[in-house]
Amino acid sequence: MSLLKNIQGDKVIWAIVALMVLFSFLPVYSASSNLAYLYGDGGVTKYLIKHAMHLFLGFVIIYGVHKIPFHYFKGLSILMLPVVVILLLFTLAKGTTIGGANASRWIRIPFIGVSFQTSTLAAVVLMVYVARYLAKIKEKTITFKSTVLPLWLPVFAVLILILPANFSTTAIIFTMVLMLCFLGGYPIKYLVGILGVGAIALTLFVLTAKAFPDAFPDRVDTWVSRIESFFADDKDENFADQNYQTERAKTAIASGFPLGLGPGKSKQRNFIPQASSDFIYAIIVEETGLLGGLGLILGYLLLLFRMMVVSNKSQDIFGKLLVVGVGIPIIFQAFINMAVAVELFPVTGQTLPLISSGGTSIWMTCLALGIILSVSANRKVVKKTKGEENPLDVLSQTV
After folding, report:
1. Contact at 8 Å (CB) between 352 and 280?
2. Residue 149: what pLDDT?
3. Are the CB atoms for 292 and 323 separated by under 8 Å?
4. Taking Cα atoms as reference points, which of 131, 111, 232, 231 lies closest to residue 186?
5. Which of 33, 35, 95, 383 has the fewest CB atoms within 10 Å, i.e. the most exposed one?
6. In angstroms, rounded to a whole number, what is the distance separating the alpha carbons of residues 283 and 263?
7. HSE (CB half, 13 Å, CA atoms) of 294?
8. What pLDDT, in 10s, does the model give residues 29-58?
9. Predicted pLDDT at 265
10. Which percentage of the chain shows pLDDT scores above 70?
11. For the chain, give me the number of helices (H) and strands (E)?
12. What does the pLDDT read at residue 242?
């Protein structure tokens, strides 16, 4: 009970997150059967326990982070940015395989044997950093030259390091940074120029990858094949393997419309390799029907609404931008995941936040939610004595 009394921040956000987490156990338990038969003894209990442990640690992250006064994240973002760049460099240099799958976006934490996706941490840190910088220059005259080194150099450094292994994440982060800059008052004419620079950089990367295929094996070809298969005719045999999961996902959604087959009664879960992660929304609709599919969409929309309420109520410009910067990507990722399941988007590999199985995606979503709840608690940094300042705030003001 004492723990509940110490919970602060927007109670509606807490409730939405708790309900989504509780709901996630059913589709994860149901959808893990394919993994259980392929890589285990047929029992799915261990996958459910693993999911529960990931969520428990996620709630520990939310609780711990929401206790931190949000102004501290200014300095923390500066300290963490070099760390994530080093982690991304290590991940890029290491990237071989884990279990026969491409692992160029993962690193394994020593001693505990847990795989960690560094790009998800980099995304949160980068959005906090951009929010801090935009708040810092809010009342100043902005010139493109003055923002190249402190703003765009870190942004493109992170994006370039993520791009070779994960195009979809790179595109999402870049889009979110542009959106945050627009909302933060950064001149549109400069944003158009940055968009052009991004397009040129992507083109150069693709040409380089084509010219030196050994440096980036299969990555560009994978992107191209996914896009081509998305636009190809369903009967085109050249893309039968690429279309397999999306076709199965559409079959699952069609068979579950409108009332669903019932909890745990999915049939397509046995045929979709990523049923518990990338395509879990299809399993949800198959089992719970239109009610479950629309209910989940409304849940994310309500979460978005509460984020905007928190942002609007914050009296600090950094707090406003911080909520938007770390909150909108959660909703954006959710709708991309659902759009892939209904074949509105090419396959991206993005999970469904708070629902899909997986450790890193859950933890980083919880980190972002903890930051939002910290802002909603509306705590201020209190000076212990006159003239005493927090070192993290001093760092964020001087860099």
Report:
1. yes
2. 94
3. no
4. 131
5. 383
6. 10
7. 7
8. 888 877 666 666 667 788 888 899 999 999
9. 86
10. 79
11. 16, 4
12. 55
- Which segments of 62-172 are extended strands (E)? 97-98, 101-102, 106-109, 114-117
> Residue 245, SS3?
helix
Contact 59/370 with Cβ under 8 angstroms? no
- The pLDDT mean for the chain works out to 84
Q: Is 392 left (phi over 0), alpha (psi -120 to 50) or beta?
A: alpha
The residue written with tokens 């030259």 in the block is 145
292 contacts 260 by C-beta, under 8 angstroms: yes
Total domains, the chain: 1
Q: What is the pTM of this model?
A: 0.88
Interval 204-236: pLDDT, tens: 888 887 777 666 655 666 666 666 666 666 545
User: Which of 128, 73, 77, 71 is CA-nearest to residue 381?
Assistant: 71
User: Judging by beta carbons within 10 Å of its beta carbon (0-12, 13-18, 19+), is residue 308 exposed, middle or buried?
Assistant: middle
CA atoms of 255 and 290, how far apart (whole Å): 11
Q: Do 283 and 27 form a contact (C-beta atoms < 8 A)? A: yes
Question: 50: burial class by Cβ within 10 Å (0-12, 13-18, 19+)?
Answer: middle
